[in-house]
């Protein structure tokens, strides 16, 4: 059912049916950063491909786009630049810089909290592109595959 929702969202984006895209996201905002393995782009990449900066800004008010997603080995801003949507690319890059500054600030706060005795869970979060990387193996290195 979730796969169907994500697929429908991306079909609507591909067909530039922005009101339907907004409805889908309003119902399930967490699907905005997902794509089935057989799809080329995430929603943000579709928006970059066609240069719909105003739609991106509008949708950003109801959901959170992960700006580090890679589709077809390209970032969102790379897709925008490739299709000559420079304003879109620059906007994404400015958000990425803001995000990096916030992360750096949070890292310093986390370091201070850790040194003051606060405990972290040690949980690692990876973007979906991490799992798509063909160089990453989930098979233990010491497994004997000859048997």
TrEMBL record:
Region annotation Disordered: where it falls in the sequence: 99-119
Compositionally biased residues, Low complexity: 110-119
Species of the source: Adineta steineri
Protein name (record): Uncharacterized protein
Superkingdom: Eukaryota
